[in-house]
Amino acid sequence: MTLTFLGTGTSSGVPVIGCDCAVCTSGDPRNTRYRASVWLRWDEISVVVDTGPEFRLQALRAGIRTVDALLLTHDHADHIFGLDDVRFFQLRGRREMPLYGDARTVGVIRRAFKYIFDGPLIPGTFRPTLAPHDVEGPFSLFGRTVIPIPICHGQLPILGYRIGGCAYLTDCSRIPEGSEALLQGLDVLVLGALRHRPHPTHFSLPQAVAAAQRLNPRRTYFTHIGHELDHEATERDLPAGFHIAYDGLTLDIE
C-alpha cells in the first residue's frame, strides 16, 4: 500500500491569508500546505481520506485519475467542502461511490450537500452519486479491513482509520486508552501536530511526540500543521523516526 499526502495544513492552510511570517513567506515548497488529506492505493484501488476545499487542486497535482471510495474523519469544513469534485471521477463509470464516516458526519453530508441526495437529476447536469455508510466498527473495503479509531478533537468525538500497518489520526487532541490498543504494531502513524504551543482541540507538537512515543510505531509523520512550524527547522529537532510530512510526500507502507 502507498500513502500520498494530498495536504498537510491546518484549517487555514499555509500560507495564511494576509500573513507575512517567515513560514508563510518561505521559499521552501514544503511550507506550502493545503488542507489535510491523504490518498491511499493498493491493488489498483484508490481511496481518499477527507475532501477539503482544495481537493480539486490536490487531485490535479497528484495525478489522481480514479477514486473508488471516500473515508471521512469528521464534518468540519476543511475536511469535507471539496466533496462535490468527486463527481468528475464518475463521468465515465457513473457507479455509486461509497462514503464512510460516523453517523454525525454522514448526517452533515446529507444536509450540507442536500442536492446530491434529494430529487431527480436535472437532464444535462451531473452530480456526485454517493452511497453513505455509517461507520460503527471495522469493515471490509476492497479486500482490506478498515479499523475506525475513535479519537477526541477537543470535546468532539471523531474518527481516525487504520488499514494494515498504517493509521491516520488528524485533528487529534486525545487518544482514548481503548483506541491506543488498536494502534499497536504500526509501520506508519500519521498524527496531527498543530504548533509548539498548546491548543484546546489539537495536539501541540510536544504532545504529539509524546503520544507517538507511547504507541511506538516504526515511523511517525506529523500533519495538520500550522504556520508556526517551519519544515526544515522542526524536522531537524525531532527524535529519530519522527518526521514532518509535506504535501506530495508518498510513503510505502509495510
In words, what does this structure look like?
Helices cover 19% and strands 28% of the residues. The protein has helices at 55-62, 77-80, 103-112, 114-117, 177-180, 205-215, 231-236; strands spanning 2-7, 37-42, 45-49, 69-71, 97-101, 130-134, 139-141, 144-153, 156-163, 166-169, 188-192, 219-223, 242-244, 250-252. The protein has a seven-stranded mixed sheet. It has a seven-stranded mixed sheet with strand order 7-8-9-10-11-12-13. Strand 12, helix 7 (231-236) and strand 13 form a beta-alpha-beta unit. The longest helix is centred in the last third of the chain and has 11 residues, at 205-215. It is globular and about 55 Å long. The mean pLDDT is 96.
Task: Record keyword descriptors for this entry.
alpha/beta; 19% helix; single chain; globular; 7 helices; 254 residues; 7-stranded mixed sheet; 14 strands
Radius of gyration: 18 Å
Mean pLDDT: 96
Q: Note the run of SSEs as H and E.
A: EEEHEHEHHEEEEEHEHEHEE
Low-pLDDT segments, ≥5 res: none
Strand order of the largest sheet: 6-5-4-3-2-1-14
Structural class: alpha/beta
Q: How much β-strand is present in the residues? A: 25-35%
| Major sheet attributes | 7 strands, mixed
Proportion of helical residues = 10-25%
Q: In total, how many beta strands?
A: 14
Specify the overall morphology: globular
Distance between the termini: 7 Å
Task: Report the total helices.
Answer: 7
